[in-house]
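Support case: user asked for a sample of complex input and structure output to validate their parser. Sending the pair below.
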Amino acid sequence: MDEICTGLCRLMVDSGAEAGLAQFVSLLVGVLLVSGVPLLTVILLIWIERKVAARIQDRIGPNRVGPIGLMQTFADLLKLLGKEDITPTSADRLLYNVAPLVSFASVVLIWAIVPFTPFHYGVDLEIGALFFVAVASFGTLAIMVAGWASNNKYALLGAFRVVSLLVSYEVPLVFALLVPVMLAGSMSMLDIVNAQSGMWFVVLSPLAFIIFYISSQAETGRAPFDLIEAESELVAGFNIEYSGMKFGMFFAAEFLHVFTNGILMALLFFGGWMGPFYYESPLIAFAWLGAKGGVIYLTTLWLRNTVPRLRIDQIMAFNWKFLVPLSIANIVLISLALKLLQELNLAPRQLIGASIIDMLPATIVLLLINGALTMYLLGILRRRGQEARREAQAAPAQFARATAATAD
Amino acid sequence: MNVLNEWAFIGVFAVMAPVFPALPIVIAWLFRPRKPNVLKSSTYECGVETIGDTWVQFRVQYYIYGLIFLVFDVEMVFLFPWAAAYNEMSLFGFVAGFLFIFLLTDALFYAWQKNALDWK
């Protein structure tokens, strides 16, 4: 991307354009190239999402428009274009119209730091990971604004839940993100991927990956964390007053966000474009990244269509009393163990360019620690589950006693 | 690409990002039908007219979660440089980071003990 931009810039200056303008135009072209990837994939994603959901529910899904329904999204787009756009009279017009734009923009902006191959990326920010956290939280803001500006009680209730849910799950998400940053010793996405040349971070810290996975599922508001748009209680949640294309933008943003998270997880934990022959051609590297991100994306769809919705108190308790302490413990244990290994010269101080043999002792130790922590946690979960079951069994008896008392 | 150029890229990207969703909305605005009436543009609420103000005070529990989050989020941002410098860190910096995490955890357990984490 760098070469394309500077090359284009030079070409324009040579042909007599003003330097500032040339730079701006070349940056614009770069932006369009980078953002073209998410904007094109989102059209396909809508189809994939519907098709996968249909297959899991033992339906066929869209199959009328085009071969295997591939043109369905375009048909829907045309339909949405012809839909009347209703703005409620009591709504805050400015905020109401801005919210869908912010929602979609926040997701597209994440792609600025996503490296597609070792050589093709928008920009390799030194604070890439931090940029991701900052930009992703704009999505929360957009939903809050949408719910507030609609001036509808359902929408506002949905927005309240968003604030508590998304904001809470950002804590374990960021803590889990600290682990790849710590292992790579850098916040740049390119460095994080390159540091996985010896061993993928998902092997070094599976718990961090699982925490990141669960909280990113919550961040996108997908089942089992979909009470933002709990249809049965809130009708549609924050987007209830939206119609036409603005409504469509919220959904495009959500679909894209899920896929973006898949790609990010592939980059942070699964070695990004690392795979056999990735150095032969950027296309192979890109295909590896797409394949890894795609598989993770499909598992999130699978999860979404399989598990039921949780209650808000359960979700909150799970986050603050389980995920947050767990992610803190994970960080502490991994940093302690890695420091110890480095002092004993059992782990390389610089993971970028490390081979698999350099990483072997560290991998074994970190895996053992993660395994021990997981076993301990499973013990806690088992005890909690037994308690809950005992309470549930005791409850009908109490109910019977209570009804007997009123009968007397 | 130097640092300034990197951020110029982000700047252009940030300006362009809302344009992408705005485009279809504007195109739809050109084509879509306009037949407003009073009932259609009233607030939706199960077919009855909405009673009372929507922008009310909300449950304090949301606030408490917001406050706990604020503590964590602001402090986590400080942990990022610590993690990025992890490989070259002196023992002092390492221990300082741990002290920081300990204080964070301490605050969490305090909130837990005060039942601030229970949904009421």
